[in-house]
Amino acid sequence: MAKPLSEYNRKRDFQITAEPSGTESAAKKRKASALSFVIQKHDARHLHYDFRLELDGVLKSWAVPKGPSLDPSQKRLAVHVEDHPLSYGDFEGSIPAGQYGAGDVIVWDRGVWQPHDDPQQAYAGGKLKFTLVGEKLSGDWTLVRTRLKGSGDKEQWLLIKEKDPQARPATEYDIVQAEPDSVLSTASIKPPASAKPKSKSPAKPKAGAKKTTATHAIPDQFTPQLATLVERAPEGDWQYEIKFDGYRILARIRDGEVRLFTRNGHDWTERLPRQAKALQALKLKDSWLDGEVVSLNSDGLPDFQALQNAFDIGRSLDIIYYLFDAPFLDGQDQREAPVEQRRAALKAALAGSRSKLLRFSDAFAANHRDIFESACDLSLEGVIGKRLGSPYVSRRSNDWVKLKCRLRQEFVIVGYTRPQGSRSGFGALLLAVNDDTGLVYAGRVGTGFDQAALKNIYAQLKTLERDSSPLRKPLTSAQARGVHWVEPSLVGEVQFAEWTREGVVRQAAFVGMRTDKPAAQIVHEVPRKAQSSTAPSADHGVKISHPDRVIDPQSGTQKQQLAQFYSSISQWLMPFLHQRPVSLLRAPEGIEGEQFFQKHSERLAIPHIKQLDPALDPGHARLMEIDTVQALIGAVQMGTIELHTWGATWDKIETPDLFVLDLDPDPALPWKAMLEAAQLTLSVLDELGLEAFVKTSGGKGLHLVVPLARRDGWDTVKAFAKAVAQFMTQQLPERFTATSGPKNRVGKIFIDYLRNARGASTVAAYSVRARPGLPVSVPVSRQELKNLRGAQQWTVANLLQRLQGVKADPWQGYANRQKITRKMWDKLGARPPQ
C-alpha cells in the first residue's frame, strides 16, 4: 500500500520548488478543528482552479479547469489528482519551470467544509455532499464521480452548486470573473499569455554544494527588498551606498532575453532599450538583477528632474543603470548568500561590460557618519545601509536602512490651485497620503516647478478634474478656497523640512512625478528609531537591560524597540489602564521562550509599579496597577509583552463597569465568518438597547466591549453576558457555541463570556500580543468593521501609522452609564441570579 503523499513527493524536487514537502503523516493528530478547504488558482500549462478538501490528514484534490460556478445548471469538470499535504493550503508563489505544475499559484478561496454524511464513506462511494463556509464560496455543493474517461487513469468528477439562497444564474454573475484575486494576500494572476516559453529542466545542485547558492529556474515576477527609513545609523557591521535619486528597476535575464521591470512589476523594457541591450551583451544565464536608473547632472550627481526629462523625450542614452544586488545571478539562486557575497559576484559579472550605461554601485569605506554628512553636503538624497551577512528578502526589511538628508517621500495629488501673477498652469498642488480610512490631507507644494513641469503636470490635471473632494475629511472653507479637485491617481515626490503636529508638510519643494508607484500604496512614512546593540539604554528613567534581545524573530523586534513602542502609544494606552488591576504576560526570553502570566506583584520588583491595597484580593500578594509611563516601561524591562485588565476599577472593585464578549473562532473559519458573527452579535446588543464597542483581539477574533454603570455585582454581570452568549447559540446553533473547549467550537465561534468573573481579565486596548509579528489589540469604529482584514491587522510595525491618521477617537461616545434592565433579561429569555 502506497504511503500517504508518496505520489505528491514523487512528482516534486523540493531542492528546487518552494512547495511544502509531503513529509507530514496522514495520521498526524490535529487540534480539534473543522475540516478545511482551499481553492488555489493555478496558472500552469492552462489556467485552472485546484479544489482541495481536508480528509484523513491530507488535502483531497481536484483540478477544475473552468473554476467553480454558482449556477446549479453548470456542472463543472473536476479531475481527481494526487493528495496534497495540509500545509499546501497556505502555499502561494511561483513553481519553477521544469517542475511539475510550473507556474504561479494563489489562494483564491479558503475556509471550512461541512460534510452532510460520513465523509470517508461518501468519498469512497464517489458522491460527496457538503456545505462550504469560505471567503467567496458558501452554501451547499456536491462532488460526484462519473464514468467519463479522461487522460491517463485520472478520475473525472463533477463539481455542482446545489439550489439554495447562495446560488446565482451564470448569466447574472460569474464569481471567477468577479473575484479574481487572492484571499490570503494582494497577489493576483494575470490572464495567461498565448504561449509560454519552454524551459529545460534545471540541473540539481551537486552534492556538497554550499547552501547559499543553488541552481534555480528563476521566477517570472520578482519583488525587491525595500529599505526601512531610520533617524540615525544603527550600530553593528554595515555597508553604505549612495541613495540614488531615480527609479528602482529590476532586470530579468532568461534564455538570453532581457526584460526591465519597475518595483511594482511594470515592464519598462521599451523605455530603456539601450540598457537592456547592454545587459544582454553580458551573456549571463538566468538572472534577476536589482538597481536604479538615474540621470547625472554636470557635476556627476543624480538629477531626478533630468531623469524625467530623459524619459519624456525618449532619450535613454542619458540614463545610467546603477546595479547594486543580484538575488539570482548566472543561473544561481543567491538570496540566502550574504549581501557582501552577492555584491562581489555582481561586480565581477559587470567587470566585462564595456557599456557606459551600466555601473556597479560601490560601497564606501569611510565611517557612516562621514558618508552621510558628505552625501548631504553634495545635496544627495541620502545613503542606504545594508547589514553585512544579511540575505535578500522580497519585502521591507530592517537589514536595509535609508537615511535621508531632508525628509522626502511620495504624495498622492488630490487637487491644485489657480496660478498667481505671471505664473502659468497652476499655483500649488494639494497633497494627501493613505491611511486605513482613506485619503488624508497632507498639505500643499508650490515651489520646485520649472516651466516645462508646470505645463506637463497641468495638462494631466485637467483631464482628471472632478467636482468633489477625494479626501476622507473635508477641508476647512479657507483651505478649500479656489481648489480644483482631481481624481487621486497621480503621485508626486516632495522634499520638506518636517511634518507638523496637524500632519501636514512644512517648507515643501516639488521633486518630480512618480509613474512607478501606484497612488494606493502612498502612506505617511515614519522613521524607525535606530537602536544601539552594544550598551543598555534608558527610557523614562528606566534602564533597559539586554536592549538588543530579539523578542520576536519574525519581525526582528528588540526589547528596547518594544519599550519605545509602548512609550510612543502611551497617550492612547494609559486611559485603558487607569485605576484597573493589571495582569502581565511576561516572556523574558522572547515569545518563543517560556511565558508567565502574573496577576500579583509577588517578589518581582517591577520598576515604578503601583501595588494596590492587599484587602482587594485577600490571601494573595498585592494586585498591581500601571499608573505611569515609567511603570509601563518598567513592566517591559521585566519582560512584559501583554497587558490584561480587570472589568472594574480598584476604587469600586465589586461593581464592574463593563462586560466583554470575546468572539473566539475555530481557526479554520474564514475571516468573513468572524465579521458576520460580530455584526449579528452587535445587532442583538442593539436590540437590547446596549451600545457596544469593538476592538481587534490581536489574536484570532474580536472583542465586543459593553460599558456599564457601576451598579450590579460580578455574578449578575457575568450571568447577563452568559445569557447573551446562550441566546446567540440558541438562535444560530450552526454558527455559535457558548461552551468552552476546542471540541465544542469545531466550525463555530465561541462567545467567551467567562472573562467577566471577578479576578478574570481581558487584554487591554492597545496592548501588544505575544504572537509572531507582535500584533496589537486595537479599537475600531463600527463603520470600520466591514473593512477589517483580520484580527492581527495592526502590529508594532504599523500601528503608529494608523494612530497618526486617525482624526477622531474610534470609541467616541464611550461612557459608563448603561444599566442592565429587567426588560433586557426578558428579551433574552433569562433570569438574573438571586
From TrEMBL:
It comes from the Bacteria. GO terms for molecular function: DNA ligase (ATP) activity. Residues 224-404 form the ATP-dependent DNA ligase family profile domain. The keyword Electron transport does not apply. Its EC number is 6.5.1.1. InterPro entries: DNA_ligase_ATP-dep_C (IPR012309), DNA_ligase_ATP-dep_cent (IPR012310), LigD_ligase_dom (IPR014146), LigD_PE_domain (IPR014144), LigD_pol_dom (IPR014145), NA-bd_OB-fold (IPR012340), NHEJ_ligase_prk (IPR014143), NHEJ_LigD (IPR052171). Coiled coil: none annotated. Residues 559-811 form the DNA ligase D polymerase domain. It catalyses: ATP + (deoxyribonucleotide)n-3'-hydroxyl + 5'-phospho-(deoxyribonucleotide)m = (deoxyribonucleotide)n+m + AMP + diphosphate. Keywords: ATP-binding, DNA damage, DNA recombination, DNA repair, DNA-binding, DNA-directed DNA polymerase, Exonuclease, Hydrolase, Ligase, Manganese, Metal-binding, Multifunctional enzyme, Nuclease, Nucleotide-binding, Nucleotidyltransferase, Transferase. Pfam families: DNA_ligase_A_C (PF04679), DNA_ligase_A_M (PF01068), LigD_N (PF13298), LigD_Prim-Pol (PF21686). Gene3D superfamilies: 3.30.1490.70, DNA ligase/mRNA capping enzyme, DNA primase, PRIM domain, Nucleic acid-binding proteins. Residues 185-196 have a biased composition (Low complexity). Residues 1-27, 184-218, 525-544 are annotated as: Disordered. Its cofactor is Mn(2+). Residues 40-145 form the DNA ligase D 3'-phosphoesterase domain. PANTHER family: BIFUNCTIONAL NON-HOMOLOGOUS END JOINING PROTEIN LIGD (PTHR42705). This is DNA ligase (ATP).
